[in-house]
Specification:
The structure holds two protein chains of two kinds. Chain A is an all-alpha fold. The longest helix of chain A is centred in the middle third of the chain and has 26 residues. Chain A is built from three helices and no strands. By secondary structure, chain B is mostly helical. Chain B has one domain. Chain B contains four helices and no strands. In chain B, helix 1 packs antiparallel against helix 2 and helix 2 packs antiparallel against helix 3. Classes of the chains: A mainly alpha, B mainly alpha. The interface between A and B is large, with 49 and 54 residues.
């Protein structure tokens, strides 16, 4: 029962990721694409957490934590790049 | 008894997070310009990632018992991290987008332009 509900919500997250991927491909400016990439990455984090609950192994949640950290650094780097500054100054 | 309560709370939070994620993605598709789309992205990040990760923490302890406590604590840590850092990255991108002069369609008044910054 709970497995079926989890697979159903997994499908909801995959629909959301697909809709955001359209905005990432089409989006007219660079900040639009970056915003859609944020939504996609945090949705992917939740998908990994749900798969970790279904499969019962604790390895995927570590990868999901490092994925969230990596996308935070990537968003800051792109913001610095769009302002024309170098990181580390 | 505690296990059933954890299962009900976790399932409710995960399904609520899926619905909020779809709502945020539809807003991301339909809204006219970047500074309006930030609202939809906030719904989709805070409501669609932090809430279901807390639900995943409840569910993992409820289903697997003592074996799932690593997954539970990891999901709680990830939720706290996203709750702290998603506004920071969103604000950084919005600040640099305001300096890039990208199109702002339903704009009525710009105080930042008035100040000359």
């Amino acid at each position: 029962m709970i497995d079926m509900i989890l697979v159903f919500s997994l499908g909801m997250f995959i629909i959301s990721i697909t809709l955001s991927m359209y905005r990432m491909v089409v989006g007219p400016t660079i900040p639009d694409r970056m915003l859609a990439l944020d939504v996609i990455s945090y949705g992917l984090t939740v998908v990994m957490g749900i798969i970790a609950v279904i499969s019962g192994s604790p390895y995927l949640i570590v990868i999901s934590f490092s994925l969230a950290l990596w996308f935070f650094i990537g968003a800051l780097y792109v913001a610095r790049y769009m302002e024309g500054e170098q990181i580390g100054d | 008894m505690v296990t059933e309560i954890f299962l009900v709370i976790g399932t409710f939070l995960v399904v609520l997070g899926g619905a909020l994620s779809i709502i945020g993605a539809i807003g991301l598709l339909r809204f006219p310009s970047y500074f309006v789309r930030i609202h939809a992205a906030t719904v989709s990040v805070i409501g669609g990632s932090v809430v279901p990760l807390i639900g995943v923490a409840f569910l993992s302890y409820g289903i697997h018992g003592q074996d799932g406590i690593v997954t539970s604590l990891g999901a709680l840590g990830t939720a706290a991290f996203i709750f702290l850092t998603a506004p920071v990255s969103s604000h950084a991108i919005a600040r640099s987008a305001a300096r890039m002069r990208i199109p702002r369609e339903p704009l009525e008044h710009d105080h930042l332009e008035e100040d000359g910054r």
